[in-house]
Amino acid sequence: MFEPQGTGFFLILIVAFAGLLFWVATAKQAVFRVFAACLAFIPAMVFGIAAVNKYYDYYQSWGAMINDVSGQGTTGFPKYSSGGLDASKHLQQDLNRDTNAAEDAVVGVQFHTTVTGPQTHITRDVYVYLPPQYFQKAYAHYRFPVIELLHGSPGSPSAWVNVLNVIPTFLGLLAAHQAQPAVLVMPDTDGGERYSLQCLNNPGGIQDMTFVAKEVPVEIAHLVPRIQPPGRAWGIAGYSEGGYCAANIALNVPGGYGYAGILSGYFAPVASQVPLGNKPGARPVKVYVFKGNPALAVRNSPQDYVTQMPVGVFPPQFWFAAGSSDRGDVVAAQRFQQLLSIRQVNVPLDIIPGGHTGSVWRNALKPMLIWMTPQLAQQAATANANAASAAKKAAAQKTHPPKPALKPSAKPSAKPSAKPAPRR
After folding, report:
1. pTM to 2 decimals?
2. I want to staple 273 with a disulfide (CB 3.0 to 4.6 A). Which of 196, 245, 382, 387 is the partner?
3. Are residues 188 and 236 in the same domain?
4. Is 293 part of any domain?
């Protein structure tokens, strides 16, 4: 009743505001009237924020709000920096030392890391979730598929955990055998909630798509043991701005992912909020990053580019969800679904009760994971079988190396015959 969306909380704000207005009207001294009027702004402002939160059905509890705003909600592991073999060893050591093996095999492990792109030089937070199967003996030699989850704007990667409840949802599906295990990777796509970069490679600035779609997968694959390298055994999904990111990346980096889930996404870029002068930490300004470059604008508009992709390029398989009350989201998804039909048969589209809100995205997670994870598991099984076959072949060649081919002996050169006598 007194949670952020509860009726009791709204009543408290109304009573507080009314009481302060009464004080303004009845106070005899001007200083108290001014003081009460200033205080009245606080419940009025909080009421407005709470109303927006209720409309979008975002924070459902105080704990979720505090964890999301403060960036808490992760385990007590150190904050890892990506860095190849050494970082991977440290992670494995901490998993062995600081966690309970029996508990890990039931609920999995979530941890926090940072990734610095070697090409883009972007440094951002990434949340990683290892499912329970990662710690079970039956999966000791299994290389897991991965789903990269992209948040909306404003937002942060912790929203997947604290707002959309992706981990308990995934655990419930795994326990019911409705989904297959996968590692979840949740990167910061907007630089700490300050910007709205849309995962674009800005021609004059931040190369966000390169960071999100190429550098994060490669660095996480180096950090976390036993996951698949970037490719068809990776999926990508996002909600709102993250849905646009996932759709655009899926078409522009077709070999990087096998499956894409779009939750209330859009399919053409809008104005981005980028740092002034493209310097990290600068105040955000709104710009259309492809102004004056129509070719790039088309390339980064999935609704246009999907009809112009080369015939031999195969994009990932797509899945869509949209809230029934948001006509724009539904029409955009239906239109893109129709355009995709020339490349993918039976493109799924789930229409979920609600609008462009957190409740729709929470409810879309189940069908999306049920659709995506079994197909990722098939890709991982194929990749694992191919790797095992290659390793077996390499071991056999090492044990019984092929005999070197004998060099043909040089034939003795024939003695030159005597010169024939000249004819007369």
Report:
1. 0.78
2. 196
3. yes
4. yes
